[in-house]
Amino acid sequence: MSTIPMADVAAFQILGPRRRQEDAALHVRHGGGRLLVVADGMGGEPAGDVASMSAILGFERGFGVPPDESENNLRWAVRLMDGLRGALDAMAEALARGDGEDGMATTLAAVWADPDGMRWLSVGDSGIWMSDVLGEYAPIRVNGRHGEGNRVDSGLIAKAGPFRAGSIEAKFCVTEIDLHPGPLAVSPGRLIFVGSDGMDVLEHRGTPGGWTDRRTARGQARMPAAWREAFGHMNPRDFLSRVESVLTAGAAADNTTAIALRTPMRHSTRAEEYVPVSDAPEREVLGGV
Q1: Where residue 91 sits, what CATH number does that domain have?
Q2: 7-39 burial: b if 16+ Cβ within 10 Å, else e
Q3: Do the Cβ atoms of 31 and 66 come closer than 8 Å?
Q4: pLDDT tens, 9-41?
Q5: Number of folded domains that form the chain
Q6: Among 124, 134, 224, 279, which residue's beta carbon has the most beta carbons within 10 A?
Q7: Domain limits at 111?
Q8: Position 283 in a domain
């Protein structure tokens, strides 16, 4: 049988053309599950790095430690919303300490994955994806995309207004929330990954090195062979190394952060040949502050 643990996880960041890292990420293991959180501080806004780091640590604090016994979906909804309130409180606390600035804002995408499946909460345009079980088709984005750039361009909202990017702000503004207390079943061997919007370019057809090759008659996006190998066989660290190599080769237009987790595989030749991330930490925090 496969011995791949839920701790088979990895994370990475690249700075891109930015002068400072405004993304932050956290993953932590609790029992048989793991919490993954990514926040993308608003580019060009004041103290985006403070906003994102405050948000992930505040979310962790508000989310707490799930009990070993199962909880119903309502309790999970409350737990995820408690995490969001914790993020908002932490940003307000940063302002009170003088660490941030008025108007600082961030996206937030948080996933809880355990043997029952995955549950999530997201605000803004940071993505949550799940791979095809065999790694043959492009991954599916499971959360809502709440970016407001098109509405800014059309003049429907102000560029510097409180509703920009569907973000969370230190002054307690949350415009759109994607809450899925779930659980969404996740079959064995799939990759779950959470990332800031720097990952989006890989979805675009025509992006050099991207994972969208062509579409089948049913509208499914097939992937180039190199990506099929990455999604179907690589452990999370090797998968993210491939992501990083493609982005740094020229596709990235922004700083990028992602966390990836591989669910345990069923007994098979592929599982027997799989090399897990043996030194995945129980808890890891990435960010610019």
Answers
A1: 3.60.40.10
A2: bbbbbbbbbeebeebbbbbbbbbbeebbbbbbb
A3: yes
A4: 999 999 877 778 899 999 999 988 999 999 999
A5: 1
A6: 124
A7: 9-277
A8: no
